[in-house]
Amino acid sequence: MRPSSSSVCLFNSQGAVIDDDYSESSTYDVVESAAKASDHNIGSPSHRVHFNLSENASYDNKQIFKEDCAEHWYRRSDFQAFKSSTIISARDVVFFDRDFSGGWESYRNVIERVYETCVESDMETTQVDEDDYDSFVRWVSIKKNRIGLERLVVRSLGKDKIARRRGIVATVLDIQRDFLQEKGLSKERQEEILSFACREISRPSRLFAMHLGKAQVFQDEIFQA
User: Fold this and answer.
1) Helix (H, G, I), strand (E, B) or coil at 61
2) CA dist., res. 164 & res. 168, Å (int)
3) Taking Cα atoms as reference points, which of 219, 92, 205 lies closest to residue 144?
4) 3-state DSSP call for residue 74?
């Protein structure tokens, strides 16, 4: 992951960085390039959010002193280290799989097929092919260190998530503009419309996360048995 939550690093079979906005490049360091891209994104926001400060509520803190906060909260350098480590881990996965990425049972292809099933579903449940699910469970069990890296090392999945994330932002802005013209809608009805529209777009991610969680539980149950 990059320091900016609005962008993502993808990798090709040689471990080169493939940015969601730029062409493929293998001439720069993964971590350094991610940090530079983050600085660029942070410095030029495309949207602004304003908060009604009068709605703020304050409460007395009786559990921790202000001077202790720095010790208990992650610092900016901590988050940067976490994200840099994630990028390096994803790159290592791509390097490891570069000679085995084309087979039907390969990690990348199994992940792609399971995720594609999630994309095609129009409900909050989906049925994965039995053979694909068995392969999926097997990969999850033997490669637990890859859990959470799927969108970074499987290019098609990462690109789809980028498009859906941008789609949610665009959808919310469009619907909010419509609300300005339709002043008769209650706040509750507006929230329902926004929630439904966003859930439609984000459904594949929820379904894939569900399958990922079930695969881990299923494997743990087998191990305990």
Assistant:
1) coil
2) 6
3) 219
4) coil
